[in-house]
Amino acid sequence: MSSFRHHEEITTFLKQVCREIKAKEVHTEVRLELESHLQELIEDKLSNGVDLDTAVKESISQMGTPDVIGQQFHLAHRPRFNWGLLAIVVLFITIGLVAIFSAQTALVSRLGFTSIGLKQIVYLCVGSSLMLIIGFSNYKKLAKFSWGLYLVMIALLIYVYLFGNEVNGARGYVNWYPFQMNIPALTPYLLLIALAGIWSAPQRAVANESSMNAFMRKSWTHVGTVWLAVLLILSIHAIDNFVLFFIGCLTLLLVLKMKRTILVAHCSLFAVALGWFLLSQSYKLKRIFAFIHPTEDRRGMNFLLTQSKIAMQSAGWTGHGFGSSLNALPDLQAEMMFPFLIYCFGWGAGIAIVIMVTLFVQQMVGVSRKARDPYGKALVSGLLTLFVIQYVWNMLMWIGLAPFSSFHLPFISYSGSLVIFQFIAVGLMLSVYRRKDLGTCQMT
Known about the structure:
It is a single chain. By secondary structure, the protein is mainly alpha-helical. It contains 17 helices and 3 strands. It has helices spanning 8-19, 27-47, 52-63, 66-77, 83-111, 116-135, 146-163, 183-200, 211-235, 239-255, 260-280, 282-289, 303-315, 337-345, 347-370, 374-397, 418-434, and strands at residues 165-167, 170-176, 179-182. Strands 1-2-3 form a 3-stranded antiparallel sheet. The protein is globular. Residues 440-444 have low confidence and may be disordered.
């Protein structure tokens, strides 16, 4: 094709086709695809003794009308927005606002004036705006910043370990006026985004590299990056975020089809690190496994579980009404939002949340399956894991089927600035879905 690809009629034909295709990202692939077909037709005619100009004209005529071809490519490869996922997020936002203002009303009698409702509105506005901006952006451009993002998060964890404020036994909060941020809570999201880019990138061979150096480099990339992060997360006693991050890492490894030895190495790390942490923190060990014996120590380790069951059992189908006071649950606006919602609005509210979570997960699984490139598939699968664990674990622990944790209900519970990063995660999923058809072009 190189001998006649710059022929004036071929150039005009390709421009007319690409003019109909709104997604400029596929123009190069469309040109290559059409040039390949034209090359076959032209070479066949040239071999039969037809001159070049005639061969080009007949080949273009045989291909078809350029406007029609361009419209076919446009229909096949235009960006598509996942309105189903967005609709469910909007429903979550609506339920979350009702829940937060109900909690605020209930807390006024206990704490006096509280502004969690106004703060939640600000977080939701900022988060939803970022979600839409990212959803209409090209997520692939983020991949080249993966190592930078990873190193920034490691630096932040080191900073938290040295200077972070301790709250409820975990050293995680930092005060950067006027913001207070829970860095460990952000860690699973940002580290998994970074590792999705690092692990899905093609491994480049280094010239004259010894086998030992190659082994060390690959070990650091696939294993060391996780081990370093895990040690820092556990050193600040962020056990819940450790669980989120580690299970998310295993999901990435499975989606990217890493070697079995890498999976074994990570599972060994999980067993050793978790065992060491729990043995060194006897109180946390008792607190985690208290749910196995729910009828014991009801005024101690199982106090919250007992009170949540009483609250949900007393709700009935209609509940006690908006803003009903529930002094038995201290942080009802945070991880205790699920039993509080049932207490206020009845068992139907709990069933509705379960259904919505199921639809939300179904939408995210659909995005993961339709993603074509490894980076997009890993990105969606890792973030999907974080949402599933938080939703399912939070609901199960209040009916006594999971150990107690600090997991919140994303978009529903009051979780401060963390909700902004949850919106960013959804925005990345929307971006992956929107660009799922901007792949290899084929003639229709």
